[in-house]
């Protein structure tokens, strides 16, 4: 989403009611949505409860907990709140106060009384900065994920656009299942990592042309847990989601899958979606030992596996929107 299209939410913290009313009006007139509170404690509580904000305007002199203390707590949090830019509103024009503000993690300050134009200009500057930084981070994550996925692919001699298609199918299934664009993108990227654990399986087994022996199958079936091991070290939402996909993409809805034999909704929705996306692409792709299945054969098989291998609700969405999945297939051929 571009900066211009995005709706921004601002959290203002000021203990003087007249200030709150004035700031709120200025911000709302400028098109922002606003949450306005009278103390640092209240703000921190709301943020802990999951309130999200794109920017914080923070008064410095407040009773109970002043602005610096409030900022320090927010910035030291392990949660997403730590990354919200904080602009101080200060009546103090002394240098000490200002440098204090930067030390505790503020990005800017505005001295009261301020001009409306100045307030809005500074807010916009910092929202823009944050927006472009976020975009840069997200873009880097996206590229890294596809790079890691490609490494697995090369290792397992998986050809062409398998990873790309599986992630696009997962994205579409997420949208059809009612997730918003942002969540759907997590499904998409996480699904690209489904077979990362194959990195830990010997080449001779991963690339064996013939059928695997029972012993080799046991080794091969370790790849979900290996993938989980690799990815679960991170606290980032995207990698956490990837870890779930890696571990659960071979679970079956009826509990006959591996590695844990999870059943029904015990399997995370990320795992259920990746399972369907992965199998559909395998059926729709020719391999050395099999031809590409006809659409009618694919539909019949997936229908037949509803409630067995796959989540029935996802099967229904898939079948009702089959044309859209085939279109992705055509967009990313091998
Ligand atoms: Fe796999
Ligand atoms: Fe796959």
Helicity range of the residues? 40-55%
Q: How many strands in all?
A: 5
Question: What is the name of the CATH superfamily of the largest domain?
Answer: Hypothetical protein af1432
The top level CATH class name of the largest domain? Mainly Alpha
Task: Summarize the entry for a quick read.
This protein has 334 residues and is of the alpha/beta class. 55% of the residues lie in helices and 7% in strands.
Describe the structure.
The protein is α/β, with parallel strands linked by helices. The protein folds into 2 domains: about 10-130, Response regulator (Rossmann fold), CATH 3.40.50; about 155-330, Orthogonal Bundle (Hypothetical protein af1432). The protein has helices at about 15-30, 40-50, 65-75, 95-105, 115-155, 160-175, 180-190, 205, 215-220, 225-230, 235-250, 270-285, 295-305, 310-320, 320-330, and strands at about 10-15, 35, 55-60, 85-90, 110. One fe (ii) ion binds near residues 162, 166, 194, 195 and 278.
Sequence-ordered SSE layout with sheet pairings:
Layout: E1 9-13, H1 17-29, E2 33-37, H2 40-48, E3 55-59, H3 67-76, E4 86-90, H4 95-103, E5 108-111, H5 116-155, H6 162-176, H7 181-191, H8 203-206, H9 214-220, H10 223-231, H11 237-248, H12 269-283, H13 295-304, H14 312-320, H15 322-331
Parallel strand pairs: 1-2, 1-3, 3-4, 4-5
Helix pairs in contact: 6-7, 6-12, 6-15, 7-11, 10-11, 11-12
